[in-house]
Amino acid sequence: MKYLCEWVMARLANKTSFIVFFFYLVNGTLMAQDTIKTEEDPLQVFETTETTAAKFDFFFNTSNHYSESSAYDWLDTVNLLIGNAQKTNDSIAIRQYQLMQSQIYQDIGDYSKSISIANELYQKKEYLDKPVIKILLDLLDENYGELRFSDKQIEIRKEKKERGITDKIIFYDIYSRQGFHREAMENYILEVKKTIEEDDFFRQAEYYNNVGSYLRLDKSAPTALTRYKKAKGYIDVFLNDITTAKTELEIINGNLLKGIIEGNIGRSYLLLKQYEEAVPWLEIGIKNIEEYSKGKYSPDIVENILDIADCYLQLGKFRTANRYLTSDLNIITVEHQLKKNRLFAAYYDKIGDYKNATLFHKKNIRIRDSVSTSEVSLKKQQIVSLVEEDLANSKKIVDQQKEVLERTRTEIQAKDEQINLVFISLIFTLLGFAGLVYAYLKSIKNQRLIAEQKYIIENALVEKDSLLKEIHHRVKNNLQMVSSLLSLQTKNTRSKAAIDALEEGKSRVKAMALIHQKLYQNDDLSVIEMQGYIESLINSVQSVYKKGGHNINVTIDAEGTELDIDRAIPFGLILNELVSNSFKYAFPEDDENGKIYIHLRKNGDLGFFEYTDNGVGLPDDTDERTNASMGIRLMNRLVNQLQSTLNIDKTNEGVRFWFNFK
User: Are 547 and 570 in contact (CB under 8 A)?
Assistant: First the structure.
């Protein structure tokens, strides 16, 4: 509402009165609502259209095919037309009608059937022109996305780029489907925000809705809610703006997006356990989506209905919750079926029907058992495919930069040769003025060459910094992927020792990833400011040991100390081991007086590192354990890399580790 008011005040900057404005606002809104009503059934218009090409254009350019007739009526008509085209052996008509058939199956949510027909057409793509190919590839892209076939989706997007249908391959939606919602949001903001004009209210609403969805999926409901409300403000401005003419399709898409945003606001309230606030938003979202997506399957409607049932269960209104759960839901995805079974189990559990509650729990167990193994395997394959494609893109960018640098170098050499030829000709032409002219021209040439070389060097340094930042960013992303793969492996491992080893490995990978993150965020790529890095590392380790890490007072004394990457990585790994050990072993009683002190200084070529805690200290047999302890051995090797020796002092309270380094 805030953004709507701001827009209204901007529009009223002239002398137009408030009364006239709102009169036109109301009338314009009513007129906009009237424009979406179709006087004639689109299916009847389609049937009376004469040529196949005209039918094809009408089908894919009509705002809402199903405003009067259902998708199944359309399917019967298109099937009949395919049969007639097959009788006359009209191959062009058959392909066009099959593309319509695939679109209808996608609209009703039968994605497997839609893909089957589209793949059959894809095998004959050499016979299709560019507009038809675009529709076909878009269909395959959307269907593969709905079915979570990320590797297939990447292949289709690569072909769309090769054919010039899109400028680049996007990954943010694929990242989100793999569970990397924060990474997806960062890529989405980087790719999309710069392309949106300030007064493009529809795209602004779409942008903030998508950012809100990534945050909601990442369990950041309060922040997501603020983004959704911002999106609601923009879409209201778009729909109520009577100064800009809108097509019927734009009005339908605007109201449909409004319904989706309203449902997302309700979902955020549900996550925040504000159930009474959530229900009205979910209900109005369902109403708008149903009204403006007639005949089309909408997973948002299913999700909103299940969320309303969840709200009523939490509010103790079991009969109302049951009414929503037993409504005619078109369940297509496994996630929705699991959610529905879970809500039924909760419902029966709350009314004391434990037999039926157990029955629905068992249904979910069977579904999970049937898909869990294959799903984890598929997810691993898709993550590997995604990483490989991302690395391939990174390599392509680096190769392009190298090619540009090589081309620039060649051009500079050619220019130097031309300058030399001109200079020699001038020497022979102006031989009589040899002394003065030669010295003058030589001075000009040297100054110009110096300026050119300075310009080239400055540009090369800028490009080098950009490439280094990109490489560090990619390395950080890939290390995060490795950490995610280790997390997946942890979930499939029952051995506690193996799980502990994987968690330790994951912690070490995160410590290295943080180094590369700090590097690409710095203006100076040669060194890392250690105070900020150590603080970030402590926060990362602390989040792993939630039970024992938050009552410990950590003091860091490294202000102004900078290290290069060759020293920062061993320091990060050493510090990761020390802090992890303190959180795990030094304070078994979760002592609120626990203290950790980290000191790092570097004066000239010499440096000093000290780590102390006031915990229970090291056991008496530490010397015997040294050879068997992975952590101690790792720290000794890392300190050796720094050309030093690790010193350990046992005290009455706690332990002290220290060493000098160059």
Answer: no
What stretch of H or E contains 508? helix 496-521
As a whole number of Å, the CA-based R_g of the chain is 33
Region 417-428: mean pLDDT is 80
3-state secondary structure 634-645: HHHHHHHHCCCC
174-205 residue pLDDT tens: 877 777 888 888 888 888 888 899 889 999 99
Q: Percentage of residues in the chain with pLDDT exceeding 70?
A: 81
- Global pTM value: 0.50
Structure tokens at 623: 């010397």
CA distances, 420 to each of 406, 415, 434, 658 (Å): 21, 9, 16, 62
**Residues 44, 58 contacting (CB under 8 angstroms):** no
For 337-397, the DSSP string reads HHHHHHHHHHHHHHTT-HHHHHHHHHHHHHHHHHHHHHHHHHHHHHHHHHHHHHHHHHHHH
H/E element, 315:
none
Fill in the DSSP letter of residue 246: -
Distance between CA atoms of 262 and 277, rounded to whole angstroms? 12
In whole angstroms, what is the distance from residue 72 CA to residue 93 CA? 20
pLDDT of residue 32: 41
Which residues are CB-neighbours of 257 under 8 A, at least 6 positions away? 202, 205, 206, 209, 235
Residue 401: what pLDDT? Answer: 62
> Among 112, 90, 96, 93, which residue's Cα sits nearest to residue 59?
96
Q: Among candidates 141, 144, 54, 161, which has minimal Cα distance to 100? A: 54
Strand, helix or coil for residue 475 = helix
Q: Label the pairing between strands 595-603 and 553-557.
A: parallel
Whole-number Å distance between alpha carbons of 58 and 314: 48
Work out the number of other CB atoms within 10 angstroms of the CB of residue 611. 20
Q: Minimal CA–CA distance to 291: which of 254, 338, 342?
A: 254
Q: What is the identity of the amino acid at 637?
A: R
Q: Is 607 helix (H, G, I), strand (E, B) or coil?
A: strand
Q: CB of 190 within 8 A of CB of 175?
A: no
Average pLDDT, the chain: 80
More confident residue, 310 or 328: 310
Neighbours of 310 (CB within 10 A): 23
Pairing, β 562-564 against β 595-603: unpaired
pLDDT for the residue numbered 455: 74
Give the three-state DSSP class for 609.
Answer: strand
- Separation between Cα atoms, residue 606 and residue 642, nearest integer Å: 11
State CA 287 to chain mean position distance. Answer: 29
| Best mean pLDDT range from 1-5, 66-70, 136-140, 627-631 | 136-140
Q: What's the rounded Cα separation, in Å, for the pair 598 and 538? A: 11
598 forms beta bridges with 556, 611
pLDDT of residue 17: 38
Q: Where are the alpha helices (DSSP H) in 108-165?
A: 111-122, 130-146, 150-162
The more confident residue out of 227 and 582 is 227
Q: For residue 332, give the H/E element and its range.
A: none
Question: From residue 219, how far is each of 34, 103, 182, 224, 283 by CA, in Å?
Answer: 40, 34, 10, 9, 22
The DSSP code for 564 is: E
pLDDT single digits (tens) 473-529:
666 677 777 777 777 778 778 787 777 777 777 776 776 777 667 655 666 667 888
Q: What six digits make up the tokens of 104?
A: 């209808």
